[in-house]
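Async update (no meeting this week)

Hi team, since we skipped the sync, here's where things stand on the single-chain job. The sequence we agreed to prioritize is pasted below, unchanged from the tracker. I ran it this morning and attached the output directly underneath so nobody has to dig for it. Comments welcome in thread, and please keep replies under the output.
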Amino acid sequence: MITDKTNKKFWDRVAFIYTPFMKNNDSIYKKICEIISGYLKKDMSVLELACGTGQLTFLLADKVSSWEATDFSEKMIALSKKQYPDENISFSVQDATNLPYNENSFDAVVIANALHIMPNPELALDEIYRVLKPNGFLFGPTFVYEEKVPKLKLFIMEKLGFRTYHKWNGSELSNFVRDKNFNILEQSLIKEGLLFECMIVAQKQ
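Output:
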């Protein structure tokens, strides 16, 4: 269970401006969706952790049978429900490190840009592994720290209450995922936006 709720307070405060702010990353999300879409099938059930206000949710949900969109922030979930009602999407507030779902419940789990801002991301990966069906997919696009690090912008965000717990590069991120019993199927670096995005596609061993 997440006991340090620093980032939760931050996301609750900025939820109302999150959607317009993330418009700057539309091209990144489109590339992420292109990769994820190649693995999705119409009969799949998907769990999304840290869905925010639905930047990936509403681009991908219609490609599968059911989509469970969750976030740690109540305000993010409230905005998602209000903006994008959809029959096959269920919204709920969840702690990614302490999920209520049974083992082997989902064909795929999406967790975008969240592992690096969790104090204990290994607990989230343990839970993801638990709720995934055998050979289920993990889609984990994550901001990484390669040669491009916008120190001033990150400093300002931290002053506003945002905290980054893990400053991985792409190799460190993939090793972290692999160490939690996932096979890396695909890894690519998207060199756009505030930070580079490492797109990880992995499979439960």
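Quick observations from my side:
Residues 6-22 form the longest helix (17 residues).
The chain has one domain: 6-204.
Reply here if anything looks off.
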